[in-house]
Amino acid sequence: MERRYRLRENEDFQKVRQEGRSWTQPLMVLCALPNGLSHSRFGFSVSRRIGKATVRNRVKRMMREAVRRRVSQIPPGQDLVLIARAPIARAPFREVEAAVEGLLSQAGLIK
Length: 111
What we know:
The protein is 38% helix and 21% strand.
């Protein structure tokens, strides 16, 4: 995912968490906030409670890939943060992809 499509600063993550709306699934939480830009930005958060570094990195890669496959369907102008929950550590990619799609649908970002 290109750098301009990523949320990288802690302040941006905090702003989306505090001011945005959120939707939940058993595997993850989606927080969204309009950003006023001509493109959407994405952030991924995986806590140490999920597992050791290799597990956390694997989870982030799966979440990024699931979003990358849907990015063309997401309307521009949103900051989105996906926060992993504990069961995601044992979930196969298909479940992660279905969870991302479900959250984006709940949020009204894809049809």
